[in-house]
Amino acid sequence: MESTGKEKPRPRRSFTPEFRAEIVELCRRGDRSVGQVAKDSDLTETAVRDWVRRAETDAGERGGLSSDGRKELARLRRENRRLREDVDILRRATAFFAQETR
Length: 102
Prior knowledge:
Blueprint: H1 17-29, H2 34-40, H3 45-58, H4 67-100
């Protein structure tokens, strides 16, 4: 197989909330650019920009859903899906038993 000259994709890593907060604080200080903070920390610039954006949203500095709001919305969507499935099952059961009693 020929090499295309591209590097392998970086493996997915996870970071603690404390580490993310530290990186966001470095970006907010303003003495280094987001790109430089990302490079110095061996992170992707996109990830760091997302962390900064999310921190601004959580702090109310930017519009949009906060992290807690996102979690609540996901929970409500799961619950809604489950309830719709329950209603569908009950509707089918009602139709079945209505036919049985005729």
